[in-house]
Specification:
six-stranded antiparallel β-sheet, disordered N terminus, alpha+beta, single chain, 4 helices, globular
Length: 136
């Protein structure tokens, strides 16, 4: 019932979730295969959808570095990043930005097969952002 206003707030908040090629990134310039990115999205965002606070614990076990300035987890291996953002006291969003090796259209289709409820955005710079909504 409150999903659309909450989604609008989340998307405007996540506009600050820059694509991983922006300044402040940790220097990794290797695009990621979509199957690998989809696996990370499943592990971090989808599997923790009932309690997205647990996504931070999952990220702690992956090859990522938390940038405390923007609260974004950046991969130390490939062009992929994650952000967990509270939308309301009832909902949070887990977002993933990645630079796929494959075409964006193919990558979006692959992500949809992993999470049909995901909101996907082509960032028009070669990267894609996927959003998964869940409990805070």
């Amino acid at each position: 019932m409150y999903r659309f206003p909450a989604a609008a707030i989340a998307l405007s908040t996540l506009a600050a979730c820059e694509a991983p090629t922006q300044s402040g990134y940790y220097g990794v310039q290797i695009p990621i295969g979509t199957a690998r990115a989809a696996g990370f999205f499943q592990t971090v965002c989808v599997n923790n959808g009932a309690d997205l606070s647990a996504a931070r614990q999952t990220l702690a076990g992956l090859p990522v570095i938390l940038n405390p300035d923007d609260d974004i987890y950046y991969s130390t291996e490939e062009l992929i990043s994650f952000k967990i953002t509270p939308v309301s006291r009832f909902e949070s969003v887990c977002s993933m930005v990645w630079d796929p090796i494959e075409s964006n259209a193919q990558s979006i289709a692959t992500l949809r097969s992993v999470d049909p409820t995901a909101t996907l955005r082509d960032n028009n710079d070669g990267t894609i952002t996927a959003f998964h909504y869940g409990a805070p």
